[in-house]
């Protein structure tokens, strides 16, 4: 048994930690505390981000050109001139809303700049969510994309997912392409494959009570409360580590006395 670094009497016992457990404790405890603090910082960042996005959602819509000149155009309300492509849809399966399975439906919008030879003349448009009618339904009944104006919020991808990109399996059903898992880059790549080269963002259409589509998107993927829960877990683990370190290094004083005798 290794020799203790020191001995400290605590209520009839001796706290006598040895070298290796003490080093492990001193290395691990700061890591757990730092992870907890980091999650608290992330929660505050999310609060600030949500406040910024909510402020944007209350502003008046501006033109796409004006929005793209902003330092942070993400989530800006825009109006886009042009016309819809009404015979192509990219459909994402297994999307939930209020606990119910359904689909997120993406359409394409041709901008006015397309007539000027702009290589990114199309925009991906999230038309919203449609419910799955039954287990056997492959794709939803998608209303034709015949809107005479496009208004909604810009959404920029938060990064690609290589696992999704490598395993993306598309199925063709009439004028709809169906995929079970996705990121926005995967959808944009598919649009390009079928001849529609899109801008590096999506327009999430404005909510419309007369539309069959549900248009309710989370402002952030992970709310502040989730980060707070993670912080509590890390701090809890730090507390358990402290308790274990103390308990496992407590020894009975009489054992030490008998050894001295």
Automatic annotation (TrEMBL):
CDD domains reported in the protein's UniProt record: SURF1 (cd06662)
Record flagged with keyword Protein biosynthesis: no
Location of this chain's protein in the cell: Cell membrane; Membrane
InterPro entries (UniProt xref): Surf1/Shy1, Surf1/Surf4
Primary site of residence: membrane
Membrane topology qualifier: Multi-pass membrane protein
Record's keyword terms, sorted: Cell membrane, Membrane, Transmembrane, Transmembrane helix
Entry's transmembrane regions: 14-37, 228-248
GO cellular component, one term: plasma membrane
The family this protein is said to belong to: Belongs to the SURF1 family.
Annotated protein name in UniProt: SURF1-like protein
């Amino acid at each position: 048994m290794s020799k203790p670094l020191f001995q400290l009497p605590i209520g009839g016992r001796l706290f006598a930690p040895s070298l290796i457990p003490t080093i492990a404790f001193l290395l691990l405890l700061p890591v757990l505390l730092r992870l907890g603090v980091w999650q608290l910082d992330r929660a505050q960042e999310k609060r600030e981000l949500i406040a910024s996005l909510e402020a944007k959602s209350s502003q008046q819509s501006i033109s796409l050109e004006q929005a793209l000149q902003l330092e942070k155009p993400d989530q800006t309300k825009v109006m886009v001139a042009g016309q819809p492509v009404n015979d192509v849809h990219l459909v994402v399966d297994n999307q939930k809303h209020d606990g119910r399975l359904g689909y997120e439906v993406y359409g394409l919008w041709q901008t006015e700049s397309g007539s000027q030879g702009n290589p990114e003349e199309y925009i991906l448009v999230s038309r919203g969510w449609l419910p799955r009618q039954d287990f056997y339904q492959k794709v939803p009944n998608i209303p034709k994309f015949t809107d005479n104006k496009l208004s909604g919020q810009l959404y920029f991808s938060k990064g690609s997912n290589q696992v999704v990109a490598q395993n993306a399996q598309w199925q063709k059903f009439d004028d709809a392409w169906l995929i079970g898992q996705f990121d926005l880059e995967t959808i944009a790549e598919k649009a390009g494959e079928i001849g529609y080269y899109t801008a590096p963002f999506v327009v999430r259409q404005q909510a419309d009570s007369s539309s069959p589509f549900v248009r309710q998107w989370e402002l952030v993927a992970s709310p502040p409360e989730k980060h707070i829960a993670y912080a509590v877990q890390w701090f809890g683990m730090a507390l358990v580590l402290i308790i274990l370190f103390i308990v496992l290094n407590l020894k009975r004083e009489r054992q030490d006395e008998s050894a001295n005798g």
